[in-house]
Specification:
single chain; globular; Elongation Factor Tu (Ef-tu), domain 3; 2 domains; mainly beta; 10 strands; 2 helices
Amino acid sequence: MRRFFLLLLSIGLTQAQASPPASNQPASTADAALPTPPPTYQVQPIGWVRKREGRTFIELYEEYRPALLGVDALESIWVLYWFDRNDNREDRAILQVHPRGNPANPLRGVFATRSPVRPNLIAMSRCRVLGVEGNVIEIDDIDAFADTPVIDIKP
């Protein structure tokens, strides 16, 4: 039986932002209050990072194989994945870091860095496509551990 890991995201999107206004006019959100507490969303992985014999792959669940049509013609893709091994309440609360963990670097907000410490553990890497076979994409490399959940792929 295939195991699904539900990944919970707390993203501050209001319903008005999620769907277009009925009047087809842009909704002004300048005065709108953010919902409290923020809504929670569920994300399911579409596949997993696999590493073997010095090679790196994105293995998708079989049901997503049709979505790979045309990926073999791309030079590179963006792979979005979940920093699942970095998920704890304390790290999610850290909002400023020294880039690359080096105290000599000036303190920055996490949104101005590529730090894996973030409120939501969504990561992305630009990867060169080496080939596609079935439901598997071979890529040059990715800044993720083996068996990291993949949540999306974009050209």
